[in-house]
């Protein structure tokens, strides 16, 4: 069962204890195939775990058939590329080291630590898995066990999408608030309004909303001051409120109009000329941390010069809009690595980093 986000702090420790009791071994990987050991925390961990090492398997970069065979043999998310894989015995002592060296599943990533901590059951298959770069975490439990664990471990937020519970928006928000998730996807709830209680998700850093009938954004959304990544997909949007300026930790803002989360036979997006979103508020220039701004399928015809204030902006993607010419002030934004204005793409630098489109 997938997790919305990785457990942290005390929840992480309880999940590690649970996995140690329920698994035969755990696996850590070195995916970069380098002989240069990283000093400090990384090497300290490998030394501490040495007494519990069961075996090591190394797969060269040009032997991808071996990766496929490993995945078939162990049926684990741990094996998806070449690298060196360390198998360790599950016991209280090795579990204690895992709890001492990290405070959340997302910590298991190079260069601070080996990557993608996974616990394997006897006979194969993951009991607990992580693929950190893809933000994928999961636990092999039944529906009944999942509900019991969520009741018992605050901070363990499992996706109950296959049950009636999380198909109900109120129940989903109840659990999201209880576990103070930092990541949430709202999709398939036929939203027409975003509930004001969204403001109670005070730890939220990533929010994705896919709701074709969501027309307005409430003020409560702009009280999520820790939000770093906001993605909204809808068929139409009235406006981007000036209150967007309050999200001063925002790094990525993506808005896609003309989208449907449940397209019926014959459904078509309205022409972009009829989309209500026709301007970008100048207040967006107050988002000092913004690195990516993507706004697609709108009737926007011009850009506010306040965009010049976004010194960290690397991606400006304004596809399928009504802008005819590249505004002159964009020429001075030398930090832009990718610029798309109504299908005309200008690229100045290699991107690097993790970005969405």
UniProtKB/TrEMBL annotation:
Keyword Glycoprotein: no
Keyword vocabulary terms for this entry: Leucine-rich repeat, Repeat
Domain of life: Bacteria
Keyword Chaperone on entry: no
InterPro entries reported in the protein's UniProt record: LRR_dom_sf, LRR_domain-containing
Protein name: Leucine-rich repeat domain-containing protein
């Amino acid at each position: 069962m997938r997790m919305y986000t990785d457990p942290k702090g005390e929840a992480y420790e309880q999940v590690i204890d649970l996995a140690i009791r329920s698994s035969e071994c755990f696996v850590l990987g070195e995916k970069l195939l380098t002989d240069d050991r990283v000093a400090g925390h990384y090497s300290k961990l490998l030394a501490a775990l040495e007494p519990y090492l069961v075996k090591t398997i190394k797969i060269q970069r040009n032997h991808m058939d071996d990766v496929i065979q490993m995945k078939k043999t162990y049926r684990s998310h741990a094996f998806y590329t070449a690298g060196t894989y360390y198998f360790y015995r599950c016991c209280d002592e090795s579990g204690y080291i895992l709890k001492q060296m990290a405070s959340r599943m997302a910590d298991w990533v190079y260069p601070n630590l080996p990557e993608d901590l996974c616990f394997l059951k006897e006979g194969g298959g993951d009991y607990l898995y992580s693929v950190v770069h893809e933000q994928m975490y999961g636990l092999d439990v039944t529906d009944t066990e999942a509900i019991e664990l969520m009741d018992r471990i605050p901070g363990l937020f499992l996706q109950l999408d296959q049950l009636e519970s999380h198909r109900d928006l109120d129940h989903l928000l109840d659990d999201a608030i209880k576990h103070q998730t930092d990541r949430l996807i709202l999709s398939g709830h036929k939203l027409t309004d975003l509930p004001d209680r969204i403001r109670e998700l005070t730890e939220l850093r990533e929010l994705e909303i896919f709701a074709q009938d969501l027309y307005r954004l409430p003020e409560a959304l702009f009280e999520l001051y820790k939000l770093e990544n906001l993605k909204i997909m809808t068929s139409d949007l009235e406006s981007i409120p000036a209150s967007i300026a309050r999200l001063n930790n925002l790094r990525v803002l993506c808005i896609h109009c003309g989208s449907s989360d449940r397209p019926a036979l014959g459904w078509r997006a309205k022409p972009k000329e009829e989309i209500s979103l026709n301007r970008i508020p100048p207040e967006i220039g107050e988002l000092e941390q913004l690195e990516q701004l993507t706004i697609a399928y709108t009737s926007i015809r011009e850009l506010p010069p306040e965009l010049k204030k976004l010194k960290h902006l690397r991606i400006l993607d304004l596809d399928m809009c009504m802008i005819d010419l590249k505004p002159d002030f964009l020429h001075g934004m030398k930090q832009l690595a990718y610029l798309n204005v109504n299908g005309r793409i200008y690229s100045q630098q290699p991107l690097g980093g993790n970005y969405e489109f």
